[in-house]
Amino acid sequence: GATPLTGRVAVVTGASSGIGEATAERLAELGASVALLARRKDNLAELADRITAAGGTALALPVDVTDRQAVADAAREVRDRLGRADLVFNNAGVQLISPIEDLRVDDWQRQIDLNVTGVMNVIAAFVPHLVEAAEAGGPADLVNTSSIAATRVLEKFSVYSGTKAYISHLTRLLRVELGRKMVRVSSIEPGMVDTELPDHVTDPDASELMAGLLREIECLSSADVAETVAFVASVPRHVNLTEITVLPTAQA
Ligand code: NDP
Fold first, then answer.
1. pLDDT band at 232 (very low <50, low <70, confident <90, very high)
2. What ipTM goes with this model?
3. Cβ–ligand 1 contact at 198 (below 6 Å)
4. Domain locations in the chain as residue ranges
5. Has 160 been annotated as catalytic?
6. Which CATH architecture has domain 9-246?
7. What is the mean pLDDT of residues 111-121?
8. HSE (CB half, 13 Å, CA atoms) of 190?
9. How far is the CA of 21 from the centre of ligand 1 (A)?
10. pTM
11. Catalytic residue of the set 156, 160, 164, 198
12. Nearest-10 Cα torsion for 188, 189, 190, 192
């Protein structure tokens, strides 16, 4: 029978782990065909197999989203193999916290390359799909993963927070332009979610800070965030849930 996302074509970046993986799986369960973008080929292939085995449709596209041409090529492949995308979960991101005076400039650059440039590459490749989908009269969603770090002032989070503030404000601006065309634009701002995100931190003290926070309270699971994204895409077309904060109940 028809489920809330039957006939939708979803693109999920960062689909090889954490929030992206769980969201791709949930969107597929609810009937969407899903294109899976990230770098780790094996993870994507496993996820695609799992979705297919459950009766869904998935297309694994190993892509580094900081590579503009590779993302543009992926968009063409999505169109050829699944059809025009009408739900884009712009989610790939990296969090490399450290004190500013450590001058971990490579970490600063990696966050800017992925969380800003990568996010823009996805927008450039898929906004035309979304506008077309809306013009054809169907739902169209751009959902960007921001963070509560976009608005909170957290020590050692400076560059990461800056990139997420960029994403949250970008979302507001895009909504003004695209909402008029019936494309919904949303940002999800999660609190602590138990994923691989802290594993990449290169500063040992910052890494211990994250691990401590994760032990202290019952965090969100990736599935909790996935359910939120699915809800945003499932409400009637004239309803745009724009900025959604999802916190673990016990997180301050
Ligand atoms: P993960 O580290 O599990 O997921 C990050 C994803 O991004 C992976 O699938 C990774 O895949 C992908 N990725 C990294 N670099 C690239 C790249 N260059 N090109 C394509 N994909 C890439 O962490 P989360 O699931 O937690 O993170 C998802 C999003 O959620 C991020 O934007 C993060 O900032 C945000 N967030 C997370 C919170 C948390 O507490 N976990 C809280 C608030 C926001 P691969 O390495 O295979 O490329």
1. very high
2. 0.99
3. no
4. 9-246
5. yes
6. 3-Layer(aba) Sandwich (3.40)
7. 99
8. 24
9. 10
10. 0.98
11. 160
12. 150
